[in-house]
Design a protein that fits this description.
Elements (H helix, E strand, L loop, with lengths): L3 H22 L4 H12 L11 H21 L2 H6 L1 H25 L4 H12 L3 H10 L6 H28 L6 H36 L3 H21 L4 H13 L4 H25 L3 H6 L1 H25 L4 H10 L5 H12 L5 H23 L1 H8 L1 H18 L6 E4 L3 H12 L4 E5 L2 H9 L4 E3 L5 H6 L7 E4 L4 H14 L5 E5 L5 H6 L4 E4 H16 L4 H13 L26 E6 L11 H4 L7 E7 L2 E4 L12 E6 L1 H13 L1
Parallel strand pairs: 1-2, 1-4, 2-3, 4-5, 5-6
Antiparallel strand pairs: 7-10, 8-9, 8-10
Helix pairs in contact: 1-2, 2-12, 3-11, 3-12, 5-6, 5-8, 5-14, 6-8, 6-16, 7-8, 7-17, 8-9, 8-15, 8-16, 9-10, 9-11, 10-11, 14-15, 14-17, 15-18, 18-19, 25-26
Length: 658
């Protein structure tokens, strides 16, 4: 049996896991970990994985699922809602960048076909890196964050014409290039029309039948078959696998089964995309990089600088503030993952010579490695290079000061989403003045037009809180769900106003103690408050006196929700977000005859030293909540523990083995 493929997969997965853990620890995007893993184990690195048909197949499958995911998330309504930014700013950025870099490549001696590919590759930016870092820095709703998102939408969309163009460029031969492109366009229109007709008339009924069978495996097989069949159809038409996968994703995205498909395909997508980026890293020849490092270095500098200046110039044409346009350009200055897709297609059709492909690949990879640094300090650079931008930010503070100037004993509401607006309504009913800070300019504009005291401002900045009248305010409320930002607000508030009541909203009880320790007067976990309200209504309907219900609610809140905290996780090992996932959970341990805890008091076991609390002890079918330290355990007891998974494992071992 040939185990070469097994060894390759084992090496790729092992190195990728180690580097992903390291990059997560450094708060860097996972895509960079995969690229570095490919560089390390590839034929030009340590040589653990050769450049073989197996690795190329992995790359192709990864590319197929990358494009399927893009198609699945494609939304025509979202494009239309942002049409000026997407098609105006985004279209101008891609056009000028592609033409500029393509012209430079042609001037340096690259063939016209290859120059077109290089221009398209370098015009794209990394959606994965940009959006992750903007979210981490709370800049996704800022002006430059929204403009960057609109440009990224157009860049993702323009990948499709390039995927049609590259096979045509590769098959031009002695024929006229324009004739070849025209023929490719006709074939593309025919294939697209056929796939859309099939998708609209057959796809929804097919998924209805499959879903009626209530078989998750059959549903998954159908999605995989649709994706690969669509990719095969476009390849047979002389186009690309990736284009077919994109179309399949678009068709599924138009059905009501989109979210189910997203959930089911997630494991396949993430694994194959990771392997795709690993194989891209394997393409990077370190020998060429060492031999041509001055050229590569110049290319990286040119890419970062030229793209930034192009976005700056285009932004000024579209009447963006100079500072905002500069920050948008810095955010979009790196190369992107879809550039790798175009590079693989270009290599397949032999449009780029070996050294040229290596230089372009190295430039894109290195620019992506520098992207976290550039994006992290985009505001710092803008303030240093554009003095008027600093003055504009000062003018924003003046607007906040003007709004808060007449207020005394007011409430500062951080965030004016649904919760913030409900709070504002309640404050208005009792005539209590407030000022709300929000980072969504559209929401701020609409609210101010409606006469609400809402201003644009980042609530976790000291100067913004001071401008909002923190020194005179009566209370502060953090109405959005972002623990890092809430902690920064608490730090600022406790430093300037240690006496001020601060109420913080959070989704669950995962960070309850952390926020309390940081100085929150009250922390309101939505999931637990929702449970309290449901339980209160239920008890009221069952005839329980209102006074007893109010007593229950008061006891739970006074005890900081300890009675409700934690839950039995079952088989759900992963939450939606590892950053905000529940860590504290409940776990039941039955004590058999001979367990070391039998006959001992809870105090003797010292479970609290592990960070584990005994929530209840069930004995003989009777549940005793909140047992005291003097409670002596007997065989058959069911001990309900509350703690983190690691602490619960250690506590169970103590109960059973000592």
């Amino acid at each position: 049996m040939d185990s070469t493929g097994f060894h390759i997969a084992l090496i790729l997965l092992g190195v990728a896991v180690v580097l992903v853990v390291l990059f997560r620890y450094l708060h860097l995007p996972q895509i960079l970990a995969y690229l570095v893993a490919g560089v390390v184990v590839g034929p030009f690195g340590l040589g653990w994985v050769p450049d073989s048909a197996t690795t190329r197949y992995l790359a192709e499958f990864g590319l197929v699922f990358l494009m399927f995911t893009l198609g699945l998330e494609f939304s025509l309504s979202r494009l239309m809602a942002m049409k000026v930014t997407v098609f105006g700013l985004g279209g101008a950025q891609v056009l000028f960048t592609a033409v500029g870099f393509g012209t430079i490549a042609w001037w340096l001696g690259v063939a016209p076909e290859g120059s077109i590919v290089i221009g398209g590759m370098l015009a794209l930016s990394s959606t994965a890196i940009v959006m992750k870092l903007l979210v981490d820095q709370l800049e996704q709703s800022s002006r430059h964050g929204r403009y960057a998102f609109g440009v990224l939408l157009f860049q993702d969309l323009v990948v499709v014409p390039f995927l049609i163009l590259i096979p045509a460029l590769g098959g031009a031969g002695t024929e006229s290039l324009w004739l070849t492109l025209g023929w490719a366009l006709l074939k593309s229109v025919a294939v697209l029309a056929a796939i859309f007709v099939i998708g609209r008339w057959l796809l929804r009924p097919l998924f209805h039948e499959v879903a009626a069978g209530r078989s998750r495996e059959l549903f998954m097989f159908t999605v995989l078959l649709l994706t690969l069949a669509s990719a095969w159809a476009t390849e047979q038409a002389g186009l690309s696998l990736a284009l077919g996968a994109f179309l399949a994703g678009m068709m599924v995205g138009e059905t009501e089964y989109r979210h189910q498909v997203e959930g089911d395909i997630l494991p396949f997508r993430d694994i194959l995309l990771g392997l795709f980026f690993v194989t891209v890293g394997m393409l990077l020849d370190m020998n060429v990089l060492e031999r041509l490092w001055p050229v590569v270095l110049a290319g990286v500098i040119a890419l970062l600088l030229v793209k930034t200046l192009i976005v700056l110039a285009v932004g000024r044409i579209f009447r963006l503030e100079t500072g905002v346009a500069l920050r948008t350009g810095l955010v979009l200055s790196q190369g992107g993952e879809f550039g790798f897709a175009l590079l693989l297609q270009a290599q397949q059709f032999q449009l780029l010579a070996g050294d040229v492909a290596q230089i372009v690949l190295a430039v894109v990879v290195l620019s992506m490695l520098l992207a976290p640094l550039v994006i992290r300090y985009n505001g710092f650079v803008a303030k240093r290079l554009v003095p008027s931008y600093t003055r504009a930010r000062q003018s924003d503070l003046e607007v906040i000061r003007a709004e808060a100037e007449a207020s005394q004993g007011h409430v500062i509401v951080c965030g004016f989403g649904r919760s913030g607006q409900n709070l504002g309504w309640m404050l208005e009913q009792d005539g209590i003045p407030y000022i709300a800070l929000d980072l969504d300019p559209l929401r701020v504009r609409d609210a101010r037009d409606a006469g609400k005291p809402v201003v644009y401002g980042d609530a976790d900045r000291r100067d913004v809180l001071e401008a909002a009248g923190l020194a005179r305010a009566r209370a502060l409320v953090v109405s959005f769900e972002n623990v890092p930002s809430a902690l920064r607000i608490l730090e600022i508030t406790r430093h300037l106003r240690p006496d001020m009541p601060v109420i913080v909203r959070t989704r669950d009880d995962a960070d309850l103690e952390r926020l309390n320790a940081a100085g929150a007067t009250e922390v309101v976990p939505e999931s637990l408050e929702g449970s309290l309200m449901m339980g209160s209504h239920l008890l009221l309907l069952l005839g329980v006196p209102v006074s007893r219900i109010v007593g229950h609610v008061r006891d739970v809140r006074r005890d900081r929700y300890r009675m409700l905290r934690g839950f039995f996780h079952g088989e759900d090992l992963f939450e939606e977000s590892t950053d905000t996932a529940y860590r504290t959970r409940l776990h039941s341990v039955t004590l058999p005859q001979g367990a070391r805890a039998v006959g001992r008091q809870l105090a003797e076991l010292s479970l609290d030293a592990l960070g584990v609390a005994v929530s209840a002890v069930r004995r003989g079918g009777i549940r005793g909540p909140d047992p005291g330290p003097e409670t002596r355990l007997v065989a058959g007891d069911v001990v309900v523990l509350l703690g983190t998974p690691e602490a619960l494992e250690a506590a169970e071992k103590i109960l059973l083995e000592g």
